[in-house]
Write a structure and sequence with these properties.
heterodimer; A: 255 residues; alpha/beta; TIM Barrel; eight-stranded parallel β-barrel; 11 strands; globular; B: 207 residues; 6 helices
């Protein structure tokens, strides 16, 4: 009896459509986020993450509708992130049906948005998303604008501040590893997981199944997030979970 | 036409709970209503009290709806309607909550809500954990994993009200039931096939 490690497929959503195709044989429309999320949930995903990469803020209505339909179809928790600017945005997404909201740039600009969101919605709904780059041995800095803009903020210290301000989880993306498939940055994970007492989700770099286990056994992550290895059908959720169990990581069995 | 009333008192989203119940309904004759109107609550056959966030704000939300608490008392104590509280909705069944100061609960299942003693473990307790039946109760599917997200637990005064347990730093009640009133600390509406089985059992429960 123990808490299982969560395996989280992440979908990039733009104007209500999944932008990276999702490789499920059963999908009628690979661009429909509701269908993709439901298929992942059915396949045993422990949580679904939507990253809204819609360029304009005007399309928020589309996202809210997508979130509502997904929450109705996928029988697992749903985390939504991307362009969340205020506690009001957090509440609107929660009312639409999301369970947790990831706040990224807005928190870097002003961490008080984490405090306000936690007060309004509870810590369990507030995820602080941190995008970090390794800038020196043992030092990671937060970058914004898709990794182009350095902020001078230390990622580990910022994670500690996010916890103090009431975030209930850290979604930690290594910008060096994102899309590279060479494994998560376990040194970054170790630094953050030993600094905070809230769950940390590993993101960026999963290419092989043993990477998923490493993020947990070496990095101390409570959950692992991955996109391309699932979308392109490289591995199924079940294959990933079986490999993690073989490595001694407790996972929820769904087969 | 059997009706389940999901109580809408401003404590988070209800979509998932409503959809979960609709999916779990044994047949198409079931209706899931969403309301905080005492008359609708009392017209229902079964009641579900969801809840996310903090105990104090949820308790305040319940009391802010005119006549709602009285209707819940009448529905459960006099009419003996099957009642299910989910997450903070389960915690509200207790006499007392200790999150953000001492706040009175509904007192339907005696106990208090206190912080989880998760020695050295990360909080909140967030994710899938095993629900272990500790009583033979019709609500419980066979063993399985359910989705939890909480930092507080329901400490039941009477051990016999606990029907299932889970472990995270300490053993705590995953589900309680006393007569026609039950509560789940996990989210059945987020808990895949296990959660659907639990909700179906609730809809078919004849306490």
């Amino acid at each position: 009896m123990s808490l299982k490690t969560r395996l989280i497929p992440c979908l990039d959503v733009k104007d209500g459509r999944v932008v990276k195709g999702v490789n499920f044989v059963s999908l009628r429309d690979a661009g429909d986020p509701v269908e993709a999320a439901a298929a992942y949930a059915e396949a045993g995903a422990d949580e679904i993450c939507f990253l809204d990469i819609t360029a304009s803020h005007e399309n928020r209505g589309t996202l809210l509708e997508t979130v509502t339909h997904t929450a109705q179809e996928a029988l697992c928790p749903l985390t939504v992130g991307g362009g969340v600017r205020s506690a009001e945005d957090v509440l609107a997404l929660l009312r639409a049906g999301a369970d947790k909201i990831a706040i990224n740039s807005a928190a870097v600009r002003d961490p008080a948005v984490l405090t306000a969101s936690a007060l309004a919605a509870g810590s369990q709904a507030v995820v602080c998303a941190i995008d970090a780059k390794n800038v020196a041995p043992g030092r990671w800095e937060i970058f914004t604008h898709g990794g182009r803009k350095p902020t001078g903020i230390d990622a580990v210290q910022f994670a500690e501040e996010a916890e103090r301000r009431g975030a209930g989880e850290i979604l930690l993306t290594s910008m060096d590893r994102d899309g590279v498939k060479t494994g998560y940055d376990v040194e970054l994970l170790k630094a953050v997981t030993s600094a905070v007492n809230i769950p940390v989700v590993a993101s960026g770099g999963a290419g092989e199944l043993h990477h998923l286990s490493e993020a947990v056994t070496v990095g101390g992550a409570s959950a692992v997030l991955a996109a391309s290895i699932f979308h392109f059908g490289t591995f199924t959720i079940e294959e990933a979970k079986k490999a993690m169990i073989a490595d001694g990581v407790p996972m929820r069995r769904t087969w | 036409m059997p009706t389940v009333c999901v109580i809408d008192y401003g404590a988070g989203n209800l979509h998932s709970a409503v959809r979960g119940l609709e999916r779990a309904a044994p047949d198409a004759s079931w209706r899931v209503a969403v309301s905080a109107e005492p008359s609708e609550v009392l017209a229902a056959d079964r009641i579900v009290l969801p809840g996310v966030g903090a105990f104090a704000s949820c308790a305040a939300g319940l009391r802010a709806r005119p006549g709602l608490v009285d209707a819940l008392v009448e529905a459960t104590a006099e009419r003996k309607l099957p009642f299910l509280g989910i997450c903070v909705g389960m915690q509200l069944l207790a006499d007392l909550g200790e999150e953000h100061g001492e706040v009175e609960g509904l007192g339907f299942v005696s106990g208090k809500v206190r912080a989880l003693k998760a020695d050295g473990l990360r909080l909140p307790h967030m994710g899938w954990n095993e629900v272990v039946p500790v009583a033979d109760h019709p609500l419980l599917p066979p063993e399985g994993d359910a989705y939890f997200v909480h930092s507080f637990i329901f400490e039941a005064t009477d051990e016999s009200d606990i029907i299932a347990a889970a472990d995270y730093g300490e053993r705590f009640p995953a589900a309680v039931a006393r007569e026609n009133v039950a509560g789940a600390q996990f989210h059945p509406e987020k808990s895949g096939a296990y959660g659907q089985a639990f909700l179906k059992n609730f809809l078919e429960w004849r306490p």
